[in-house]
Amino acid sequence: MANIIIMGPQGCGKGTHSSKIAERYGIPTISTGDLFRDNIALGTPLGLLAKSFIDKGELVPDQVTVDLLNKRLEAKDCENGFILDGFPRTVNQAKLLDKSLKKNKEEVDLVLYFDLPKKESKRRMLGRVTCVDCKQIYNRSNYFADNCEKCGGKLFVRDDDKEEAIEKRLANFEKQTLPVKYYYEEKGKVISIDMMGSVEENRVKLYAELDIFDKKTTM
């Protein structure tokens, strides 16, 4: 069983590697964005509550987000653990998550921090394009077509992948989310991985660290 948080600045490769980590452990990857969208679409009480804040342009309260997450973690596919991508974003959310897991005699087992300098993060983000249909993300450094390789949809630059938005997102990460890393470091949960290499080089480093983690947890 492995309860894992993946975190790091924008462009660090969370999306690229999280699905492979999920396959390795046979556990789902969960994002709060998907939780909001799914529950709003289904019209669940928590989804409607979240929507009431979103419609007013307000942040969904941390406790509502954690309650949504708790419901998701009750699903059968989470029996052997989960991967959280994009949550917790603040220390308060991390504390609420830990408190919630503790009620079920669980805890966060591992925090994978994908380390990337701000300059490189910005460079990668400025090269991102997204499929309008299936939302697959590509980077112009290695993909030059105008249409999605998977579904053929047109590629476009999202508003939050434009320079002004990227600067704001990176500033918010440093101010709000980086302290989450320090919070879990104090608990001895964090493995930091240098993500400056190629996708394959980063994968090798990541899996070497996971091999060490697996051996420790099975001793």
Can you put this structure into words, describing what you see?
By secondary structure, this protein is an alpha/beta fold. It has a domain at 2-28 and 75-118 and 163-218: Rossmann fold. It contains 8 helices and 8 strands, in the order E-H-E-H-H-H-E-H-E-H-E-E-E-H-E-H. It has helices spanning 14-25, 32-42, 45-54, 62-73, 91-103, 118-126, 163-185, 199-218, and strands at residues 2-7, 29-30, 81-85, 110-115, 128-131, 137-139, 155-156, 190-194. It has a 5-stranded parallel sheet with strand order 2-3-1-4-8. Strands 6-5-7 form a 3-stranded antiparallel sheet. A hairpin with a 5-residue loop joins strand 5 and strand 6. Helix 2 (32-42) packs across helix 3 (45-54), helix 2 (32-42) crosses helix 4 and helix 6 packs across helix 7. The longest helix is centred in the C-terminal third of the chain and has 23 residues, at 163-185. It is globular and about 50 Å long. The protein starts with a strand and ends with a helix. The model has no long low-confidence stretch (mean pLDDT 92).
Give a quick precis of the structure:
It is built from eight helices and eight strands, in the order βαβαααβαβαβββαβα.
Keywords:
219 residues, alpha/beta, 5-stranded parallel β-sheet, 3-stranded antiparallel β-sheet, 8 strands, globular
Secondary-structure blueprint of this entry?
Layout: E1 2-7, H1 14-25, E2 29-30, H2 32-42, H3 45-54, H4 62-73, E3 81-85, H5 91-103, E4 110-115, H6 118-126, E5 128-131, E6 137-139, E7 155-156, H7 163-185, E8 190-194, H8 199-218
Parallel strand pairs: 1-3, 1-4, 2-3, 4-8
Antiparallel strand pairs: 5-6, 5-7
Helix pairs in contact: 2-3, 2-4, 3-4, 4-5, 6-7
